[in-house]
Amino acid sequence: MHPTPLLDFFRRGEVERDVRLQAAQGALAPRAYEQLAILVLLLEDQDREIRETADETLNRIPVEALQTFLARSDVPIDLREFFGDRGIFPAEIPPIAVDVDEPLIEAEGAEDEEEAARASGTQELAAMTFPQRLKCAMKGTREQRAILIRDPNKMICASVLSCPKVSTPEIESFARMQNVSEDVLRIIGSNRAWLKSYGVILALTKNPKTPLALSMGFLSKLQDRDVAKVSVDRNVPEALRISARKKVVASVSGKG
Which end of the chain is more exposed for a tag (fewer CB within 10 A), N or C? Predict the structure, then answer.
């Protein structure tokens, strides 16, 4: 199990108190691992209420669900050790299956909030509160994610990219957008799973907002015909265009 953009925000300590409190109540995290990792982090929060709320939430998670989750082979050892210290160990024979793309516990009232977020049309997104937009980013529709990926708040964008429902075609469409932040493109460009898609690599290379160091690195992964197109593309940075042109010349010389 790998860190997600949303979890990284919590680890860096870049989350406002009201959002941390919601997370401590069991809200905001779309996946089981994210939820547990965030709750464990919040046990060390500087705010006493957040620490106590996170502890209460952890204690409300059914022991059987935790044991089943901890029995997964991809659960980090530090998480197993944390719960081992609390007397909870992996199940020897998991009695039930745990959906890792769902949280292990929902905050009180979360279902009502989720239903309200789903019922809202995309035109209402701008009028939503931050927590409502965050909920839509994690559990909303594809259409809502396409709008929220351009949100000025970095945490909203990170939540979109952390959504279990987000697909590779969606990521490719985000990588083509020139009205998203560089942070979004940087996160996409550092995700190995998404970079298995040639379409994502091509979109990032051709996007003028992609950090130059990333797009220069992706150039070597492009097919010759796409390198040739980049070499004459006036929308990409000049340094990238020149580098592409050199590769075209070298390729032609090699064939000659």
Answer: C
- Which residues span the domain enclosing 177? 169-255
Residue recorded with tokens 């949100």:
151
Report the C-alpha gap between 162 and 121 in whole angstroms. Answer: 21
Distances (CA, A) of 200 to 20, 54, 115, 194: 32, 37, 32, 7
Domain boundary among 108, 128, 147: 108
Digit-coded pLDDT (tens) for 158-170? 999 999 899 999 9
Q: pLDDT tens across 208-237, in order?
A: 999 999 999 999 999 999 999 999 999 999
Tokens of 115: 């239903």
* Gap between the Cα atoms of 35 and 90, Å rounded: 17
Give the 3-state DSSP-derived string for 209-238, with helices as H, strands as E and coil as C.
CCCHHHHHHHHCCCCHHHHHHHHCCCCCCH
Q: Does residue 119 come out as left (phi exceeding 0), alpha (psi in the -120 to 50 range) or beta? A: alpha
Same domain, yes or no, for 179 and 236?
Answer: yes
Cα gap 151→183, rounded to integer Å: 12
**Where are the alpha helices (H) located in the chain, listed in sequence order?**
5-11, 17-24, 32-42, 48-60, 63-70, 77-85, 110-119, 130-139, 142-148, 154-162, 168-176, 182-189, 198-206, 212-219, 224-231, 238-255
Contacts of 173 (CB under 8 A, 6+ apart): 146, 203
Sequence-distant (≥ 6) Cβ neighbours of residue 29 within 8 angstroms: 6, 7, 23, 35, 38, 103, 138
Alpha helix (H) residue ranges in 109-164: 110-119, 130-139, 142-148, 154-162
